[in-house]
Amino acid sequence: MRVLSALALSLSLAAPASAGVKETLSDHILPGFARFGAASDALAKVAEADCTAPALRPALQETFDAWMAIGDLRIGPSETGALSIAFWPDTRGFTPRTLRRLIAEEDPVAGDAAAYAEVSIAARGLFALEMLLFDPELSTYKAGSYTCLLAATLAADLGNQARDLKSGWSETFAETLLTAGEAGNATYLTQAEATQALYTQILAGLEFTQARRLGAPLGTFERPRPARAEARRSARSLRNVVLAAEAAHSLATAFADWEIPVTDAAFARVLEVADAIEDPAFQDIRDPSSRLRAEILQQSVHALSEAIQAEIGAPLGISAGFNSQDGD
Amino acid sequence: MTTRRGFIASLLAASTTPALGWAAVGNPAYLAAAKEPDGAFALHGLSANGQSTFRIPLPARGHAGAGHPFRAEAVAFARRPGPFALVLDCARGDVIHRLTPPENRQFNGHGVYSADGSILYTSEQQSSDSAGFVGLWDVESGYRRIGEAPTGGLGPHEIHLLPDGATLVVANGGIATDAGNRRKLNTDQMRPSLVYLSTDGALLDRLDLAPELHQNSIRHLAIRKDGLVGFAMQWEGAPDAATPLLGLHRLGETPRLAEAPLAHEIAMKGYAGSVAFSGTGEEIAITSPRGNRLHRFTAEGHFLGAVSRSDICGLAPLADGYLASDGGGGLLAIEMGKPRALALHSCAWDNHIVTL
Questions:
Q1: What is the pLDDT of residue B31?
Q2: Chain A residues with beta carbon closer than 8 angstroms to that of B157
Q3: A118 in contact with B at a CB cutoff of 8 Å?
Q4: What ipTM was assigned to the predicted interfaces of this complex?
Q5: Backbone angles phi and psi of B214, in degrees to 5
């Protein structure tokens, strides 16, 4: 029976494994959270001055753009922290239901950004704000109205969340990843585990884009579901797909300290096929030729994932988990 | 044959003889199946500090096992739908019996010995329609099939004995599967249940979930010394439903479902792979290898917190908390919600840790 100590295993894998983690943090993840934090702060500041929908829309778009670079990460502080910033998919309609209840009852929690952290995660973050700012009915609110106050508080709460996530990553979790394999680190018992965790995040983000960002509106050929497109109210559905692919490519580039030409080409192909799509919210998906273009985009995201597996996963000998792939 | 029986009888009579009991194999506290680095499969005995005390090769991937209460003898079940189970002499490393279910029956990956070690109860389903059965095997006559009892549901998975030694608890997963593979046939019409049977097969109590939770397959069980049952579920309905994955129940009483805050529940990905009470019995936890996390609750079902660990699945009580295993080879002690690495093995631990 071979039983390796954590130390022995980490030493044997140290050189190739640690480089990827450090650079992925410094080149992509930590600057990404800093940028998202700055964008959220800017949004909250705009909202303090003018909380009406037309005033807030550009700043929300910029914040959403910044989020997409790091929004698909689901480890460390983002494991649950990402869900109260981006509560989607919302197949049971929790976001509109909770917002409408708050507005109907004029719940006083809308006046207190700190207390708002206790509200259902469905009524917090980017998608709740998007609903208030872009829904044709809700977004007509006037300055000084309850909904205007709610929008400003949502923006402030988002700023608080962005700050917490940024510090959670930069002050704590980055260290957890970088000290993988050291005594006392019970999250990652070897450096290889930290490497695998980050690599898995890249693929999981692309899988989410294929299966949900594209798969949800595509539905089936007999029954397309355009109303299920992500961020369709703000017409960001296509943009989010492109930015998610860009994030995966950027993470992969930082992660690998070697050339990844097939991955580069696969990402270029995603951009190229995305360019051919006409409706940025996928609302034309019932039209067979529009549907075909969305399916081609989905295939290109899949190809990007396969390129990353071939150029990064295979050389590192990383594959998916033993139990997670095979339930019982 | 006579000689062999005589040998086993003398072994039973002298059950405290250290050389023939678990002491002979290093007094393991647990059993766990694993995939070895070379791709082969094995059953390990584990000490409370995470060391492997013995290792026996298995011919195929094992699911759970069951340990004899005093003999160094374990049953390893094939993964469902299982055509065989192996009885292992853990001291000699030999397969001493190969159990084959009767015609039109398949093992479902779990089983348990009676408290006196005389009978092995196995979780089985009828191949043709997935109807559940408990199979009874007489240990002393060389694991002869001596009977069976219906479980009153489809696709039973884990099976346990209550501390009274006279009551079986069965998790009827509710899923009908194709006889030749694991393809699910009825996820729209599932009706999982938790049933209590007397050891002679009489139905004592049956718990069904609320209609909106009928797609929550009840699959794994944990039993506290006072008879409190924890049951872990796996959601087969639309994704993102974030339904509760743990329930607590006591024979004859109303169940309590244990929910985590929404963000935590979503992160479990609708899947609990194992459940265990803590060593003190004051709390209970479930693991999700898909969500890479463990959730802790009070024994009353209140959420206490989460622990993150990649591909975590196996779970068992440990003195002050839990022993958890994962597909990366790690064995962690989780005490007061804090993980501590006990050992890192070169194998991938399978779904369950069985307490001896």
A1: 96
A2: 328
A3: no
A4: 0.90
A5: -65, -15
